[in-house]
């Protein structure tokens, strides 16, 4: 049976570089894994009232229930994110927050994680990568530490069809996905 990997993209734009990079990474997983993008666009902003069973005015959104279940059921989560104003995009931080509640039932617990960041500039989303890792460090989550993936000048790394256009980038990201697969195998959630 294949291990499910949730891929969270830190950009809502359909033709974003982050989404194109995520699709490249998905294609690199071995046959032992099934990786897919789980959309975060329809998650309402996190509000603790949703998790308060005594608050009948704000029922728990079904999108929260489904998202949390996807994270809990996943063998691992791959984040692929751009950098917005030197940090992670709001939609991605919201997804982290939604899966972090309710207290005592955190979806992230023991979920292996990997992070790929990019930017159109030279730094490759360094700040977004570090900020996301900081947010995730609160939870018990095995994480690929090395290599770190900061893809600078991301538009120049992709061809017209959205595929990596050079062997060095392809091989680097492929090696990272292999490291992530090993982390997942070494840290089963069951």
From TrEMBL:
<protein>
    <submittedName>
        <fullName>Flavin reductase</fullName>
        <ecNumber>1.7.-.-</ecNumber>
    </submittedName>
</protein>
<dbReference type="GO" id="GO:0010181">
    <property type="term" value="F:FMN binding"/>
</dbReference>
<dbReference type="InterPro" id="IPR050712">
    <property type="entry name" value="NAD(P)H-dep_reductase"/>
</dbReference>
<dbReference type="InterPro" id="IPR005025">
    <property type="entry name" value="FMN_Rdtase-like_dom"/>
</dbReference>
<dbReference type="Pfam" id="PF03358">
    <property type="entry name" value="FMN_red"/>
</dbReference>
<feature type="domain" description="NADPH-dependent FMN reductase-like">
    <location>
        <begin position="5"/>
        <end position="154"/>
    </location>
</feature>
<dbReference type="InterPro" id="IPR029039">
    <property type="entry name" value="Flavoprotein-like_sf"/>
</dbReference>
<dbReference type="GO" id="GO:0016491">
    <property type="term" value="F:oxidoreductase activity"/>
</dbReference>
<keyword id="KW-0560">Oxidoreductase</keyword>
<dbReference type="GO" id="GO:0005829">
    <property type="term" value="C:cytosol"/>
</dbReference>
């Amino acid at each position: 049976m294949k291990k499910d990997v949730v891929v969270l993209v830190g950009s809502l734009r359909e033709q974003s570089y982050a989404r194109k990079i995520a699709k490249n990474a998905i294609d690199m997983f071995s046959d032992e894994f099934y990786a897919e993008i789980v959309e975060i666009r329809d998650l309402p902003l996190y509000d603790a009232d949703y998790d308060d069973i005594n608050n009948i005015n704000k029922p728990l959104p079904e999108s929260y229930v489904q998202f949390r279940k996807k994270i809990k059921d996943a063998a691992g989560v791959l984040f692929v994110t751009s950098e917005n104003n030197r940090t992670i995009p709001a939609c991605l931080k919201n997804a982290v927050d939604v899966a972090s509640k309710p207290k005592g039932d955190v979806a992230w617990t023991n979920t292996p994680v990997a992070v790929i960041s990019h930017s159109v500039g030279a730094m490759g989303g360094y700040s977004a990568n570090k900020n996301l890792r900081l947010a995730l460090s609160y939870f018990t989550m095995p994480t690929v530490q090395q290599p770190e993936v900061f893809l600078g000048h991301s538009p120049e790394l992709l061809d017209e069809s959205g595929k990596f256009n050079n062997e060095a980038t392809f091989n680097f990201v492929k090696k990272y996905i292999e490291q992530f697969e090993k982390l997942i195998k070494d840290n089963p959630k069951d």
